[in-house]
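[step 3/7] fold_predict: job queued, chain A
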Amino acid sequence: MPLLDGPRNGETVTASAHNGIPIIDGVDPSTLRGDIDQDPNRRQKIVVVGLGMVAVAFIEKLVKLDSERRKYDIVVIGEEPHIAYNRVGLSSYFEHRKIEDLYLNPKEWYGSFKDRSFDYYLNTRVTDVFPQHKTVKTSTGDIVSYDILVLATGSDAVLPTSTPGHDAKGIFVYRTISDLERLMEFAANHKGQTGVTVGGGLLGLEAAKAMTDLEDFGSVKLIDRNKWVLARQLDGDAGSLVTKKIRDLGLEVLHEKRVAKIHTDDDNNVTGILFEDGQELDCCCICFAIGIRPRDELGGSTGIQCAKRGGFVIDESLRTSVNDIYAIGECASWENQTFGIIAPGIEMADVLSFNLTNPDKEPKRFNRPDLSTKLKLLGVDVASFGDFFADRDGPKFLPGQRPSAESIGAADPNREEEPQVKALTYRDPFGGVYKKYLFTMDGKYLLGGMMIGDTKDYVKLNQMVKSQKPLEVPPSEFILGAQSGGEENADDLDDSTQICSCHNVTKGDVVESVKSGTCKTIADVKSCTKAGTGCGGCMPLVQSIFNKTMLDMGQEVSNNLCVHIPYSRADLYNVIAIRQLRTFDDVMKSAGKCPDSLGCEICKPAIASILSSLFNPHLMDKEYHELQETNDRFLANIQRNGTFSVVPRVPGGEITADKLIAIGQVAKKYNLYCKITGGQRIDMFGARKQDLLDIWTELVDAGMESGHAYAKSLRTVKSCVGTTWCRFGVGDSVGMAIRLEQRYKSIRAPHKFKGAVSGCVRECAEAQNKDFGLIATEKGFNIFVGGNGGAKPRHSELLAKDVPPEEVIPILDRYVIFYIRTADKLQRTARWLESLPGGIEYLKDVVLNDKLGIAAEMERQMQELVDSYFCEWTETVRNPKRRKYFQQFANTDETVENVEIVKEREQVRPTYWPKDGANEDFKGHQWSSLSWQPVIKADYFSDGPPAISSANIKRGDTQLAIFKVKGKYYATQQMCPHKRTFVLSDGLIGDDDNGKYWVSCPYHKRNFELNGEQAGRCQNDEAMNIATFPVEEREDGWIYMKLPPVEELDSVLGTEKWKVKKGEAVDPFEAYDKKYSGMKGKRAGAKGIEGSKPTRSPSNTIDW
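[step 4/7] structure written:
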C-alpha cells in the first residue's frame, strides 16, 4: 500500500478503499456503515490507533495467527511522520543519524500483504471516536470505519508545567525522534555549554547518555530527586553502586534535588536552575525525563472509562468499558497500573492477537505482568527480576497463591507480622558487583532479585521465579555458583524460558525457527522472531541458542569470509599457505564457491592481505592491483577531497635535519598541509593523484621510504628518548624502537598494528596501549601485547618480563605471525586476544612455551618476510608502466578540484563536508536526447586477468566512470552522492550468483548496481542512486558512450555544480571564535583585545 501521510502544509490525504468499505472525507459518521454489516463474506476491519512498538507487534502477531482464516483487514493510524521504530534503542540514533536503522520493519514490509487489505496513515492523529457508529475521525477530516478498534496511543513525556520557566527555549523531553532531532540541533548551536538531564530513572539515564554521546555539551549533569538512581528498580545499595559507576564514567550526578525554578534571560533562553534547597546551577539546556503520562484523551468524548492516574481501564482480556474497543501498551491501565516498559505491552499484544484469532479456544488472560528488566545503562549492566522489592513492600505473590490487589497491605496494622521473605546479598566492591536474591522463609522458592555489574544469570533466575518450582539447590549456591564466569549459556534452560522480554520471545521460539529451516542466520532469527531488536541485551543468549541448535542439527554456524568464500579468514589463510595459491584467480578456483567469481569488496582486500602476508608481492603488479582498497591501490590514504596523504617512514621518531629539510621542501613545492602525527612522524596532506610520483621521487632521492600509513600493516614504533638523552632512562628505547620498526615495516596483517618502546616505567611512549609495547627494566624489557586506543580502548597485557634485548625479536616474531595466521578479517590484536580461547595464558603457552611446536616455523616465516622487504614507493617511481594509474582522468591531462580549498593557520585544507549529500534521483533522470560519442581508446583497459579495469573520464565539466568487467563495459557517473565524492572508478567491483555486478564506493562502502533492471540503485542505502549510461567498444578501437548534450549533462552532473564549497557546512568553531575573539594575550599584538585599550597594571599588584 502507498504511504498515507497526514496534512503537511495544509494538505489533506485520504486512504484507499478496500472490499467496498469506503473511507469518506467530511461525511456524518452515522451515514457511513450503510449495507456493509449485511455482507456475510466480508472480512472484519481492525483499526489500530498508534504505530509504535506495541502496535506493530500486535499487527505482526495478528497477521501470523490469521494467516489461514484471513478474517481481518487492518488499518493503522500513526501520529508520527515515521513508520514504527525502536524506541528502546533511541540513543543509538546519535551514532548513525539514520532513522532507517531504527525501523522495526523496512518500508517494504508495509506493502507486502498479498492476502488482505492493509492501509497505514502517517502524520495523522485520531481526533474522535464514535462507538455507536463504529467510526473514527482523523486530523485530516477522514472518517474511518471499524469493526474492532485497538487503542495503542502510547504515552507522552511529562513536563513540570507548574515550574516557572518550563516553556523556555532549551527545554526538551526524551521520547521521540523529533525530540532527539530538536535536541541535536540545539546542542550543535551551544557547543561547550552545560546540559542537564532531570530524572534518575531508566529514561533519565538514557537521556543523560544521549546528551553525553552528542559530544557537543561541555559537560552533562544528571539531577535526581531520589537518594539513588533507578529507585523504582533498585534498592539503596544497588542504586548507590550504579551512581558510583556512572560518576566514574565522568557524568556528574546530583541527588535529592528538586527543581524550583528555571532561570531564563530576556529572550526566554534557559540560563540555569534554582533548586528547592536554594542551590543554583548554570546551564543552557534541560532535558526532562521525569515520567510519562498515558495518551487517553480519546476516552473523554468517547465514554471509555479512564483510571484516576491515567490510562484506558482494561480487563484481563484487554477490553475497555466500550464494546469492541481494546487498549494495549502504555495507554492501558490494568488494576490501576500503567507500564512504561515494553515487555507488558508485548504481552498484551500476544493476548489480544491470540484471542481475536482463536475464538474457539480458551482465551488468554493478561495477568500479573513481568516487570523484570535487564539493561546496559551508561555502560553498566543492571537487572531486576520477579518481585524485586518483596523485602521492602512485602511479597506481591507467594508460590501457590496470588493475593488480590485489595488484600495486599490490608492486614491489621496493629498486628506485628512475621517477615515472609529472606534476602541473600553479595557485594564485590573491587569488581563493582552487587546481587540481592529474595527467597521464601524456608529457602525453597526464589521470589525475585536485582543484579549490578554481573547479570549473566538473569534469564535463568527470572525463569525460576516464573515457574514457581521448588529449588533443587540451597540459596547460597546462587551466589557462589555465579562466580565461575564464562559466556551466557542456554543449555539448561527450558524451551518455555523467556529470553527476550522486549518481544516476549522464548528459547523454544528461537529453536523452532532454526529447526524449521526458516532461519539460517542470526539475522534471520532477529527478523523472524524479533529477538534482539529491542534493547539488544538478549543477543549473547540468542546467539548461544542459535549456535547450539545449528550444531545439534549437524550444521556449522557460518563465519565465512563472505558469500564468495566458504571459509573464515583464518581457514582461508591456511588453505592459501598450504596450497601455495599466489593469485586471486587461483584462490577462487581452489577455495571459492564459484571459480570464475569476481569476488566483492570484502573478500578481495582480505585475499590481497593474505597473499601479501605470505608472499609479499608488489601491490601494483597487475594481478594484485585490482584487489586493493583505494589506499593500497595508490599507496596513499585518500582524503576528503580526493587528494592523498604522503607519509615517509621515520623509524622510532628519529629523523635527521637533512630529511626534515627535504620534507619541508616537498611540502612547500606541492603546497601540502603538514601535521605531526601521534606516531612521531610527519603527515603531508593534499597531494594530487597526478603529483604522487613526482613527490615520492624527491623523497626517495632524499633517502626516505614509504611509511605504509595506507596499509593494514605495521604503522610505527613510537619511542621516548630513553638512555639516549634522558637522565631517568633505564634502557635505550630509541635504539630498540628503530630496530623493531626496521624489522617489521611493510609486514601485512589482518589489520594495522602499532608498537612502542618506553625507556622506563614513566611510560612516556605509552607502550601499554599498543598492539605490542616494551618497557625497559634493569634486566631488559617487559613485553606487553593486545592493547589499542581507538573507539574501544584496551590496556595491553603482560606477555613476558625482563626479556634481554637479543631475545625480544623471537618472541615478537612468533606473536605477530600467530596473529597473522589466526585472526579474523579486520580484527585488531585487542579484539583477537579477547576472543582467543584461553586468552593471554594460552598465548603465553604458544609463544613462550611452544605448546604447539610451531615456534621455529613461525620465526622462519617472519625471517622470510623480512628478507623479502622492498620499499613500495621506490619500486613504483622506477617503473614507468605504473604512471598511468596516477592520473585524474584517463582521457585528458586536465585537472579539477572536487572540494573548495580554504586557507587556515597559514596552510590549506579542504572545506568541511556539508551534512547532506546529493539527494537527487540521478537514476530516474529523463534526458532530452542521447547520442553515441567516442570517449576513450579501448586499449586503456586490461584484457585480464584480472577481469576488471576502470577509468575516470571527463566530458565537459562532468566526470564519468567506465568499468570493464569480464569483457563487457558499464558506465556511471563518477560522483558518489553520499558525500559528493568523485571516486567511483576507484571502487572495488563485486558480483553475486545471479550475475549482478556492483561498484563499492571507496569512502563509505555504498554499493551501486552496474547491470540489470535496477542498474544505478544503491544496495545498502535506498536514499540515493546514480545515473548509468549505455557504453560499448567498437571496431575503430574506441569506447563509445550514449550521452546527452554536454550542456545538459553538466547541468545535472557537472563537477562545478556538485563541488563542495565553503559555507555549505556549519563552521564548528563559529560560536567559540565569536565568544573568544581577540583573546590572544598581551604580546600577540599592540592592540590587545579588539576594541579595548591596553592598560598597565600597578607595579605593586599581581598581574593575573
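[step 5/7] annotate
The domain at 373-399+417-478 is CATH 3.30.390.30 (Enolase-like; domain 1).
The chain has 29 helices and 51 strands.
exit 0
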